[in-house]
Amino acid sequence: MTVDKKGAGNAVEIRVKDPVTIVIFGASGDLTHRKLIPALYTAYTQNLLPENFTIFGFARRDYDDEIFRGIMADAIKEFSRLPAAEETVMRFVAHIRYHKGDISNPNTYAELTEKFKNGEVYPANRLYYLSIIPSLFETAVSSLKQSGLIAPPGSSHWTRVVIEKPFGKDLASAKALNATLLRHLDESQIYRIDHYLGKETVQNILSFRFANAIFEPVFNRSYVDHIQITASETVGMESGRGGYYDEYGAIRDMVTNHLLELLCLVTMEPPGDLSAEAIRNEKVKVLNAAKLDIHKDISDAVVRGQYGRGVAPDGNPIKGYLEEDRIDPNSNTETFTAMRLKIDNWRWAGVPIFLRTGKRMAKKATEISVQFKVPPLQLFQQVECEEDVCDITRIKPNTLIFRIQPDEGIFLKISTKRPGMRFVVEDVKMDFSYSGTWKKSLPEAYERLLLDTLHGDSTLFTRSDEVEAEWRVVQPMFDHFDELKLFPYKPNEWGLVEADRLFHKMESSWRNQ
Predict the structure, then answer these.
(1) Could you tell me which of 198, 271, 319, 508 has the fewest CB atoms within 10 Å of its CB?
(2) Catalytic residue from among 33, 258, 295, 480
(3) Average pLDDT, stretch 173-194?
């Protein structure tokens, strides 16, 4: 692989030089419209794609090249984060082709083989993006391999395959999926994509921890009281997601990928270097040391909930989960889960880790909160003030907050003396926000991840042993699922009050802000 670096100072742009055919299976789906094509268009406008590339859409819809190009042009105009000038859009979509076919039909792959013989239109380097249901992964990959459409590692031309979550439904199915993929592909060819890892603030966790000598020494059990990771959403089952969500639920949809990946980045040991293998090795070590903090039974460490009916802020009624479209009226699927974990290693022994995610919650927010221990001597009084009215409270701990979305940034809450004659302290916030520092918009996660795939950089993708380690953390939940009661909660609130009991024997509580 060769890259073209250009720019000045720290503004370095890296252009993909290898000609490539990007094949999107399931190209008529929502992901292609909203994320993949707009992301590739943005890379194109920034001159980051190679001169010779083709985007090949594959789906069962009865389109041809021109119809599909028109649909993709409309998607770019609606969803691109950069201006979509008509002339630029038309130049970009001229690189797009479409093929109507059925993934399960062997004749389809013979048709692809014949088409791809035209090396001028379809470069031999190929990226296959499987935007399809997991049950079709094996069919697609095995058929591509049998048709000679996957080059072996070390060939003059490369093949890479991107798969979307979920990577299984439990530990056994995750192992089976990995075994299936590895029968047809080398691990180096598999890119398990987690769009959270493409977010700018997520990547900044590593640079914040390991590029700043003043912070890394306090990321351990001697100084940290506990860590909270929250991913809350205000939406329910819009956009026809009910069928998928009811099969998987909050634990499978969010915990065994997004939240555990965030946990890895904030608790992993410093890697020896910034190579993909070094970083992923450290993440796997953390996951192998992590486990549910169970004392007597599973309910000590896990709480599940499902939202009921409610009223939106604008006064309109909100359906309960069981009334949503494509939801089984007797569903036992959780839309909220909270859990308490521990990490049995030298750095984090005894530090509780709290994870929480849910639908129809009070606010859309994804953040990591690292709460430090309070000073051993309470020398000062703390005040909380609203204008000139102040109340004395117990001393507040310092808190470091990584805000993933929205309002991306890193914030540190510290205590300083309040102006005046009294010697009391008050919380203030040291604030680094992306919007306040840089005026240009942040790259979308898929923009970075697609370019990383084209460059062959697997740092932000999940390795097979990492996937299995994530499932191993939560597998006790599924082994004792019948013991976990499903509590109801109201929309527009912070989930379940029952989740507060996870903080047993602690003075802290969930950070609801």
Answers:
(1) 508
(2) 258
(3) 93
